[in-house]
Amino acid sequence: MALTRRTMLGATVATLPLAGCAGGSGGTATTEPDDATGTDPDTPTDDGTGMDAATVSVSDHPELGEILVGPDDMTLYMFDQDTQGESASTCYDGCAESWPPLTVEEGEEPTAGEGVTAELTTFEREDGTTQVSAGGWPLYYFTPDEEPGDVEGQGANDVWWVLRPDGTPVRPGEEMTGTPGGMDAATVSVSDHPELGEILVGPDGMTLYNFDQDTQGEPESTCYDGCAESWPPLTVEEGEEPTAGEGVTAELTTFEREDGTTQVAADGWPLYYFTPDEEPGDAEGQGANDVWWVLRPDGSLVRSDGSTATETGSVY
């Protein structure tokens, strides 16, 4: 689902530094401290009840779904040039003027509001301040966001993204996690690909694949470790039943992987994503090593020529 603000984003951020490298040009938007308190006037010290507001909370955005916000309810972002889990920021100088980090006082532990499941941690920045991370991603504001609900930074230069309550970035095609009425999106849906025809996709609209080294029908996965890093399995919570979107005729089942997670299978084929696929419609994994294939709505395989495979099992 495209953002209605996306068409304005380029003009909004064109003059602001979006790459996170030291020595970047300075942004033009700054916030002056309050003369009386010495703090940012837009940052509350409590939630109106006399209690300190949570450092990170969840807000239900009308276009993006549930996303993380700061104690002032302003949208938080992650930066793709940072490395998840490394407790380090690559955004300083001009970058940090446009994308101010979410910080706490030295020694202060960040607090999570209701619904925040991401682990909140802190690390010391090069300037000595203490930045907050969610799910291993350093958190930032965006200065053109003027009030709660603004998400002008979403997708900026394809490196800045809002985050889900569990700390995962919200990339293109992942804007909404639910259907009208508040129901969760189907686990597996059908997408009409311009070259491959109707294929199966996950709840985020990203292409799903089978792996010929798996055995259809058992089901059981042979993709772990490095393989699973490149081809992440489609999983659901333990005990959760996968749901089929309109047009999906393949039987959806689940099985327990060796790592204890619950993987989804379509017509007996374990389902996977491919990490180089960056947005819905990408199918970079199709035909990889002649063992990875997209699937039709009935769970049959689509070989490299776009035809539906009639044989099953390993190609080795």
TrEMBL record:
This is Lipoprotein with Yx(FWY)xxD motif. Pfam families: Lipoprotein_15. Residues 38-55 have a biased composition (Low complexity). Keywords: Plasmid. One of its GO terms (biological process) is alkane catabolic process. It comes from the Archaea. Residues 19-55 are annotated as: Disordered.
